[in-house]
Amino acid sequence: MTIRALQGNIEHEKRIIEELLNFHSQYESLLRMEEITGVSNNEEKKIIKDIIDSLVSRLKIVNNAIPAILKEIKAYKELGHVQKRKKEKLISVKSPDIGEELVTVSKEERKKFLEELRKTNTNIKKLFEKREKRKNTQLLTEITSPNYFARIAAKIFFDKASKLAKLDYFKKLNTSLRQANIPYLLNTYIAMALLATLIAFLVSIPLLVLISFLHFTEGGLLISFSIQKLIKYSWLVIALPLTTFALFIMYPSSEKSAVNRKINEELPFVTIHMSAIAGSGIEPSRIFEIIMKSGEYPATTNEIKKLINFINLYGMDIVTALRETARITPSPKLAELFNGLATTIHTGGSLTEFLNEHAERLLVDYRLERERYTKTAETFMDIYISIVLAAPMLMLMVLILLQYTGINIGISIGMLTLLMVIGMVIINVVFLVFIHIRQPRY
């Protein structure tokens, strides 16, 4: 019996360790989700932590009984009263959830073992019910696995990136990553920046060597090594990697500003749409689902997805979800709208009236923005006419005068004409790009 008791305890310890690894992995996944979304699911984390604590307590109780079991495994029988006294210290426990094998524990700890077993089962059931409620709820913010470049960067620079992530500046970078909807953890993104910097450094060395060998002369291209050119352009080895790292670090902030601009362009029409839906008396959270499914406002839809996830995935009420989304959105105007909605819902005010008034204010701002854009476009139209239309005619007159007077300026008339055409093309492209960037989408 003692051999079987020892075997039963060891098997039970193995099952407990497997469960510990499983729930520890789930707890780490919640922490990663918290870093991605910026919101903590404290309720689920507490349940998993309680399960882990119960499993550890059971593991200790089962393990404490093993020395007593080993003492009873002997090749001879002791006196009857001694043997009886020792057997009374151990007791077998059987429960459907731990299989057919008996688990042997000390008599003093039997009650605690069963209590910890009950806690484990209760918390697992609670966790299962909580997840079952959202089983059919779609996670709207997709969390994709990192790409090949990100995986390599994490393997090489994860430790250094973790140290940098603790600095105050990079904590602000984490906020920008979340607000710009960039799907990377802070440590991974910093590791990617370091890997890109290393690649830029490795590229800059052969580039510097190449520049040191190439010489452009009047007779053509001359290939010969020059130590002077090597020293003169040695700044490339430092400038190129630093520029690469700086661009990586500044990109989230730039992307956040772009997202903010897109949301602000959509917001007046989103608010009008929400006001029309709210007039039907529909439940507040359904308003956001309808806006999201319409597909007409892509930038604002990304923020609404966060709101819906807070409600469906984290179990928040609509007021808390609105305030959490307002806290992490890159648009101050959208944050103002969400905070206003949260206050209106909390105080029992009229959503329709609030949305109508807010839409009017946003439309006034929108009209002013359109007027500013129109005036800017008029100014650039005058500049465009002056440069693209008047300047070529003046240059044409100059070319004609140069041709008839025979003045030599060091460049042939044909080459000067070609340069003028290329300049006009570049100016047109610059103006078109500028107009495209500045033009409102709505």
Q: What's a quick, concise take on this entry?
A:
The protein is mainly α and 442 residues long. It is built from 15 helices and 4 strands. It has helices at 2-37, 42-72, 80-87, 110-133, 148-165, 168-179, 186-213, 227-232, 236-278, 284-294, 298-312, 318-328, 332-347, 351-405, 413-438, and strands at residues 90-93, 103-106, 214-217, 220-223.
List keywords for this structure.
two-stranded antiparallel sheet, 15 helices, 4 strands, 4% strand
| Distance linking N and C termini | 81 Å
Poorly predicted parts: 81-88, 135-143
Number of domains: 4
Mean pLDDT: 78
Main β-sheet, in a few words?
A: 2 strands, antiparallel
SSE sequence, one letter per element: HHHEEHHHHEEHHHHHHHH
Give the proportion of residues in helices. over 70%
- The dominant shape is flat
Rg over CA atoms: 35 Å
Please identify the structural class as seen in this structure.
mainly alpha
Roughly what fraction of the amino acids lie in strands? under 5%
Q: How would you describe this protein?
A:
The protein is mainly alpha-helical and 442 residues long. The chain is 77% helix and 4% strand. The chain has helices at 2-37, 42-72, 80-87, 110-133, 148-165, 168-179, 186-213, 227-232, 236-278, 284-294, 298-312, 318-328, 332-347, 351-405, 413-438; strands spanning 90-93, 103-106, 214-217, 220-223. The strands form two sheets. A two-stranded antiparallel sheet has the order 1-2. It has a two-stranded antiparallel sheet with strand order 3-4. A hairpin with a 2-residue loop joins strand 3 and strand 4. Helix 7 (186-213) runs antiparallel to helix 9. The termini are far apart.
